[in-house]
Write a structure and sequence with these properties.
Layout: H1 2-37, H2 45-56, E1 59-68, E2 71-80, E3 83-90, E4 96-101
Antiparallel strand pairs: 1-2, 2-3, 3-4
């Protein structure tokens, strides 16, 4: 009976490891596809940055292409005065999807100081 339990445990462990491996492989495949998806975007990164800067009346600090449940879009972080905004620009139309003040970046201290 003890040998049967060990065998069941080994089979269950192998199944869990296999499932985790498939999940990791799927996630890695999705990341690669996200990077390649930018080639299908009508709007370039530079155009998205210019649109976001104009929308939030500031300068871009960071920008990246994302493809998620919102669809393909650019996430642009804009600094305007003492405020930081997260602006999402549609990669197909170039329209601003959202512009929200990023309160997490407001007043952050530089943790890299020695």
């Amino acid at each position: 009976m003890l040998e049967k339990r060990k065998w069941y445990f080994a089979v269950a462990a192998a199944a869990l490891i296999g499932a985790a491996g498939f999940a990791i492989a799927e996630k890695m495949d999705t990341q690669e596809n996200d990077a390649l998806a930018v080639t299908k975007a009508t709007v370039t990164l530079l155009q998205a940055v210019a649109t976001a800067e104009q929308s939030a009346n500031g300068k871009a600090a960071r920008a990246e292409f994302e493809q998620d449940k919102k669809g393909p879009h650019y996430e642009v972080e804009i600094v305007s005065g003492a405020k930081v905004y997260d602006v999402n620009v549609d990669a197909a139309s170039g329209k601003v999807l959202s512009s929200v003040e990023d309160r997490n970046d407001k007043g952050e201290k530089d943790d890299d100081k020695d």
